[in-house]
Design brief:
This protein has a two-stranded antiparallel ribbon with strand order 1-2. It has one domain. The chain is mainly alpha-helical and 153 residues long. The chain is globular, with a radius of gyration of 16 Å. The relative contact order is 0.15. 58% of the residues lie in helices and 4% in strands. The mean pLDDT is 92. Helix 1 packs antiparallel against helix 4 and helix 4 packs parallel to helix 6.
């Protein structure tokens, strides 16, 4: 599944903003490379969790929900948890960028978050709680307390 809104936003960013994102992604690449064996480290040339990829992961989750999960392949609950983690990390990553970069990406994040809220509902009974484990140990956003209106698992 594609992430056209993310792609369109990235295509509209200035060189200055892209440079600040690249610096942030370089720090992320260093972290990701530090977590693997030396023989694998040199083969990793771009971070899996770059800022653009995190936006793309978040957008793809939302598009899957908007399509009532009618896309190829399965979507396990662990993928949902990973996508929620990506959303948490988006906020942290954005806060490290200059104000101009934050402002340029804020509209996309706000729009995606609104779409997420439209396709989810409060998990009042805690139905998903046993399966959702934020990597930080605590949920930083209320998204963790919501479940898809149409559940794929």
């Amino acid at each position: 599944m594609n992430a056209p809104d993310t792609d369109a936003t990235w295509a509209s960013l200035t060189e200055t903003i892209l440079a600040s994102i690249e610096a942030s992604d370089a720090r992320r690449l260093s972290i990701e490379r530090s977590r693997v064996a030396p023989e694998v480290r040199e083969k990793i040339t771009a971070p899996v969790y770059s800022l653009k990829n995190r936006f793309s992961f978040w957008e793809r989750l939302i598009r899957r929900m908007e399509a009532d999960w009618q896309v190829e392949g399965q979507y396990p609950i662990s993928a949902y948890s990973n996508d929620l983690d990506c959303r948490d990390q988006l906020q942290a990553s954005l806060s490290e960028l200059p104000d101009t970069a934050q402002a340029a990406l804020a509209g996309l994040l706000r729009a995606l978050d609104e779409r997420f809220m439209q396709r989810t509902e409060s998990d009042e009974t805690g139905e998903l709680r046993p399966w959702l484990r934020p990597s930080s140990g605590t949920a930083r956003h209320g998204f963790w307390l919501r479940k898809p209106r149409v559940v794929p698992w």
